[in-house]
Design goal:
- This protein is an all-alpha fold and about 120 residues long.
- It has one domain (about 5-120).
- The chain is built from 4 helices and no strands.
- It is rod-shaped and about 80 Å long.
Length: about 120
């Protein structure tokens, strides 16, 4: 492996490590039994950070050196990407579950509020 390929490999490994770290931090928040309402700001910051890393990833993918590196061992790189995507999918499922629970709580709150208004009007 040439020095340039080694340098490029280090760059992409750093990007993958950053993505894995962000995914881990998101998973940690989502795995808590509590609502994500209190963690909304942290999640937003993590997602913005992830977007920046992904934008950088897209930029470096466009370089001929990176294409050569990926083509030199496509199965390895495909597996790395699939691992990240798998955690992303799991995190999205967890977010959907949490948001569905919040939606249900809001519906119940609105029902109780309507009932209280109705009962107050009968007095």
């Amino acid at each position: 492996m040439s020095q340039t390929q080694e340098f490029n490999r280090n760059i992409i490994e750093k990007v993958f490590s950053q993505l894995e770290n962000i995914n881990f931090r998101i998973s940690t928040i989502l795995d808590k039994d509590t609502s994500i309402g209190g963690e909304q700001e942290t999640l937003t910051k993590l997602l913005i950070e992830k977007e920046q890393v992904l934008n950088y990833y897209v930029q470096i993918l466009e370089s001929p050196q990176m294409r050569t590196l990926f083509n030199s061992n496509p199965d390895f790189w495909r597996n790395r990407i699939n691992q990240i995507l798998s955690v992303d999918e799991s995190n999205l499922d967890k977010m959907k579950t949490k948001f569905d629970a919040l939606t249900e709580k809001m519906k119940n709150f609105n029902k109780q509020k309507s009932l209280m208004i109705y009962l107050k009007g009968e007095q």
